[in-house]
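in:
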C-alpha cells in the first residue's frame, strides 16, 4: 500500500517532466514525499521494502535515492522511506520504463518545432497531444499551413481542396482551430468557437423532418409527399394556409399524430427545437409541443414556451404520468434547470412528480388508445 503511494506520485511527476521537455525547464531533482499510508501486515511490509530496495540507486545502477526513517510497526521498529529522490532524467525513465516513449516524444517535438518554432508556447499547454496524435501530425500541419495561406470561405467543409480526407479535418478540428488561433490570432480570434466559423466556410442548412397531417394542404404547395425535409428558412416562409403546428421530441411520434386539417408536425430532435427561431407563422398558429415525460422534456418545453408564448403541451400532464406509471424508467437525477417558470400548474405538477421519484416515461411507451382519446378531447376543447 505504501509503495503504491510513491508510484502514483511518480506517474504525476512524469507528466510534469514531459511538459518540462517542451518548456525547456529544469525539474530535477524530483522529490517524492512519504505518505501517511503504511503497510498493514508483515507481508505487505516485506514486499514494499523489497520493492524500494530493488529500485534503489547505487554505483552505475540507475534508480531512486531513499531517505529511510525508523517507524513503529505493530510490535517492532522498522525502516521505511520518508522521502525518495530522483536525481536525473535517466533515473526517472529507468524507474518507469519509458525510455522508448520519451525518445519518440522528443522526435515528434523536434519535428513540430522545425515545422514552426512559434508553436512552442502552444505545445507547452498541449503537450499531451504530442504522443496522442503521433500518426496525425503530418496531416494536421499540412492543413494548418494551407489555411494560413489560403482563403477558403467559398467552400463547404467537405469540399475543401486540401490533400487530406476532409473527414480527417473533422476528426482534428479542435486541434487545428487551436493552432490557428495561436499562430494567427489576428485572423482567428479566441472567441471563435468552430473551425467552420473561423474559416468563414459555407454551412449546410439543417433539414427538419416534417409530416403533413393534411395531405390536401401539402398539395396546395405542389408537394405530393406526406413526409419531407425542410430548412429553417423554408419554415420561416410558410404562409397562413397552415393553421396548426405540432413539435415532437422523438421521431417515432412524428407518425403517431393522427391526420388533422390544416396541420403539420415537425420532428424537433430534443433541444434542436431551440434553433426554431424567428418563424412568424409560429406566433399565429395553434402551436403544440409533445415531449418525453422527463426532466429534459420539460426543460425543452419550458425553453420553447419562452420563445413562443402560444405553445401548448400535449400529453405532458399529471394525469398522463399517473396513467402510465407502469412504463416508468428509473433514472439518475440530472442537474438541469429546475426553475421552470413558463410551465403551467398541470405541467409543473407532472414535472415535479417525475423529478422527485427520479422517473422518466418515453413518448413511445404511451398507450395508443390513450393518445387518440387525449387528442380527441383536445379537438373538443379547441
Amino acid at each position: 500500500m505504501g509503495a503504491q503511494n510513491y508510484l502514483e506520485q511518480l506517474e504525476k511527476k512524469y507528466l510534469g517532466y514531459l511538459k518540462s521537455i517542451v518548456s525547456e525547464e529544469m525539474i530535477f531533482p524530483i522529490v517524492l514525499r512519504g505518505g501517511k499510508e503504511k503497510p498493514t501486515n508483515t507481508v505487505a511490509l516485506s514486499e514494499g521494502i523489497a520493492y524500494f530496495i530493488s529500485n534503489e540507486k547505487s554505483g552505475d545502477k540507475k534508480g531512486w535515492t531513499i531517505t529511510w526513517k525508523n517507524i513503529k510497526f505493530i510490535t517492532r521498529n522498522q525502516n521505511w522511506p520518508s522521502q525518495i529522490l530522483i536525481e536525473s532524467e535517466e533515473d526517472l525513465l529507468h524507474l518507469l520504463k519509458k525510455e522508448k516513449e520519451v525518445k519518440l516524444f522528443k522526435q515528434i517535438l523536434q519535428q513540430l518545432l522545425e515545422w514552426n518554432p512559434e508553436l512552442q508556447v502552444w505545445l507547452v499547454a498541449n503537450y499531451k497531444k504530442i504522443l496522442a496524435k503521433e500518426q496525425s501530425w503530418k496531416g494536421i500541419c499540412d492543413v494548418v499551413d494551407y489555411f494560413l495561406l489560403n482563403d477558403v470561405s467559398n467552400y463547404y467543409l467537405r469540399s475543401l481542396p486540401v490533400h487530406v480526407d476532409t473527414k480527417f479535418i473533422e476528426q482534428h478540428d479542435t486541434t487545428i482551430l487551436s493552432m490557428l488561433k495561436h499562430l494567427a490570432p489576428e485572423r482567428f480570434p479566441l472567441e471563435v468557437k468552430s473551425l467552420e466559423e473561423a474559416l468563414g466556410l459555407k454551412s449546410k442548412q439543417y433539414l427538419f423532418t416534417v409530416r403533413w397531417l393534411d395531405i390536401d394542404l401539402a398539395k396546395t404547395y405542389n408537394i405530393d409527399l406526406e413526409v419531407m425535409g425542410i430548412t429553417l428558412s423554408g419554415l420561416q416562409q410558410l404562409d397562413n394556409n397552415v393553421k396548426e403546428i405540432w413539435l415532437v421530441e422523438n421521431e417515432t411520434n412524428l407518425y403517431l399524430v393522427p391526420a388533422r386539417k390544416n396541420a403539420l408536425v415537425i420532428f424537433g430532435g430534443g433541444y434542436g427545437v431551440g434553433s426554431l427561431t424567428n418563424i412568424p407563422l409560429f406566433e399565429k398558429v395553434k402551436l403544440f409541443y409533445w415531449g418525453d415525460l422527463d426532466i429534459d422534456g420539460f426543460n425543452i418545453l419550458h425553453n420553447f414556451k419562452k420563445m413562443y408564448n402560444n405553445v401548448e403541451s400535449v400529453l405532458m400532464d399529471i394525469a398522463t404520468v399517473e396513467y402510465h406509471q407502469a412504463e416508468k424508467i428509473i433514472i439518475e437525477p440530472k442537474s438541469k434547470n429546475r426553475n421552470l417558470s413558463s410551465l403551467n400548474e398541470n405541467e409543473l405538477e407532472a414535472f415535479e412528480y417525475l423529478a422527485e421519484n427520479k422517473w422518466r416515461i418515453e413518448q413511445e411507451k404511451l398507450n395508443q388508445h390513450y393518445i387518440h382519446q387525449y387528442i380527441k378531447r383536445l379537438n373538443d376543447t379547441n
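note: Residues 208-381 form a domain with the Dna Topoisomerase Vi A Subunit; Chain: A, domain 2 fold (CATH 3.40.1360).
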